[in-house]
Amino acid sequence: MAKITALLLDVSYEDDSVNSVLKIFVKDKKESYWVFDTNFHPYFYAIFYDEKEIEKIRGMNFGEEKFSVLEIKETRMVAQGKAVHKVVFKKVSHLVQARKDFHDIGIKRFEYDVPFSKRYLFDNALEPGNFVEMEIEEIKTSKGKIYETKKGEVRREIKSIKKVDGDFFENAVVGAFDLETWSGKKFEVGAEPILMASIFSDDEQKVYSYETKKVKGMEMLDNERELVDTVTKKINEFDFIVTYNGDNFDFPYMKKRADKLKTKFLINGEEIRVKRHGLDNAVELEGKQHIDAYQIMKLLQRTGSVNTVKLDLESVSEKVFGVYKEKVFPSEINDAWKTGDAKKLTRLVDYNLKDSEVTYKIAKDFLPLFIEISKLTSQTLADTTRATTSQMVEDLLMKEAHLRGVVAPNKPHEGDVKTRTENPIKGAFVKEPLAGLHEQIAVLDFASLYPSIIISHNISPETLNCAHAECKKNVSSDGTGFCTKEKGLFPEIIERMLKQRLKLKSEYKKKKKEKGIDDRVLFAKQWALKIILNSVYGYLGYARARWYSRECASAVTAWARGYIQDTIKHAEKEGFKVLYGDTDSTFLLMGKKTKGDVEEFTEKVNKILPETMELEIDGFYKRGLFVTKREGGAAKKRYALIDEKGNLKIVGFEYVRRDWCNAAKETQKKVIELVLSQGNPAEAVKFVRKTIEELKSGNMPKKELAIMTLLQREPKDYDSIGPHVAAAEKAIARGKQLGVGSMLSFIITKWNEKASISDKAELEEFVEEGNYDANYYIENQVLPAVIRIMQELGYSREDLLQGGKQTGLSAWG
DNA sequence: TAATTCGCTAGACCGA
DNA sequence: TCGGTCTAGCGAA
Questions:
Q1: N or C end of chain A: which has fewer CB within 10 A?
Q2: pLDDT, tens only, A196-225
Q3: pLDDT (tens digit, 9 = 90+) per residue, A348-357?
Q4: Which strand B bases fall within 7 angstroms of a protein CB?
């Protein structure tokens, strides 16, 4: 028996003639390999009526195979307050059949839909991305033995396994690849040849092509088939194969081309596995981790960690790494390769390599984050990088619940999902601001408001409405009580995570300050916690969640509304005027008060607050601007602030929205800047006039006029045909391929004065420079973006259109 | 196979 | 033709 410590990379199972056998993929200092655990079997939990019923089930035969359960065992686990039995099967397929039959008989089942491999990770609290320590026995298999390996004669079997901490990247090879293909009239995966391919790792950066001119940086191969074979060979050297949209493009493309060219695209000797993953695909590989950096970017976009209009590699390179990257369009790719023009080809080679490089960089930069999430949730890196935030929270809860002997609630039926969705939970409180220009503003906010409320009030589905008399004081304003005697699952997990995050954050800061070390792993650890902590409240109110709890989610927001409103009242009592507040923030007008007064006030509030809750000072601002809505009243969720150093913070305004053109956004920013930093509205008017003149002249470049909108559904599914839908329809009629998820960039052209805006909308790529409706851009873009700001300063629409301030018209201003 | 609610604005749509 | 209502999108927290 050998003791082995190795990096845990993947989990799967295979069926032999008798059993589903679990296997894990690990990498040690020398090699990577599968290890089998023959002692672990698929199971679910069930509540039986009595011993007789158990006996009956033991004697039953299920399905066409007439199989019986492997065993039924008592457990320490509890579901809905009742003890459950573990019903164990030999094969996953047996479990799948039996769970239906149990339902038909009327036996309550739990965790019957947890995949076998996930089950293994939860039960053993293993952490992919971390290490495992195993006792291994090498079993020589021979014909006739029940467990037979596929290829070798020796199989490593696990006798014991546990998680141990280790340093991840030490021995894993990460490499990216990227393809450039010929563009035909219509796009279809694998229909046209691959023209060029690049690979990028620490050790090797290469670009391959064939049948064109050889230029610098390119390795010339004989034909496409050799290119496919070469790329296949190269990527087989990596442990982590990184792509950008390889789930839907590069991998399926390689496979199709390999088939066509009568060669093989095999990873570790096996075909790639394309799995359905929601609306798109996920590509799994044998004994390799496929990291699709595009999925990583999508997730970062969803969690608000990055914010780019498009998620192509050019935008990512610029926004995330601050490096400009040139785009080479499909038609240019065709042209460069076909003509063999050295200059064009060199540009293409560079582009192809940069694609791989940026892809590789995304993986290198963000893998530490996903490794930490993998550890927290006990999921493989491949799954984590493709997970939604609700899945992460649920995986974490299932893992933690199992450790505590708690069985997870079942997923809701569609009917319940519908009811839940139709009854939304009352959310946050937003105070109507005071419109106008304000001086000396202090912004306060609660640190991790929702998580801290969950902890402070012990909000959890199991602590709901207990019978204790002494818990009666812990009742939310919407009438739900929570036990104060026994800590709930949610508060316990969240408190541990919150404390851990604070610790990591201060460790990270200390290391940076004292040693000048930017410890990315420490940073990733706290970041992973932040992402999950921020998602817990949303999960409680998410209709498909196992632990959905209307009462809990509703209590969280009820308390939150209470805390923010109390803070506002308290501030007013202390002599502050409260300018604005949203969910967890309070804007104070300092008037004659000092920063010290604000600090004192904050401390006072913190003394009253529960221990885990904290009101913090976000910052002090020299000036701030709030505007009046079109229909009257001050607008919430839109404001601009400037601090002592002159840093501008623009929130909610058109400037931060992608569905407004640049000309309008930049004009608005300039106006805000002039008003806030220089107090110079006259100069702002001049600037607006200048923009209007440029628009009138017809010389405004079209990139300043493009409006970005996401096509959220198929064009035929819209009830109301807005400009972006109209533009999309026209483009589709011209042969452009667009669909759900396409980012549209359109322009309102000059065409016919009477035509509707939609009639005049065209995708940017089909519009000539200078073809734009100046009147639309003045009246519907630039003016609306600046008018409400200027109105707060006493300027009218006419002042902006005619220049300067019209005397007499608003002499009161 | 999808974290939540609150809020603003534009432009189409529709009936008087 | 007008004005109210509805659809749609995106951002704040």
A1: N
A2: 999 999 999 999 999 999 999 999 999 999
A3: 999 999 999 9
A4: 1-13
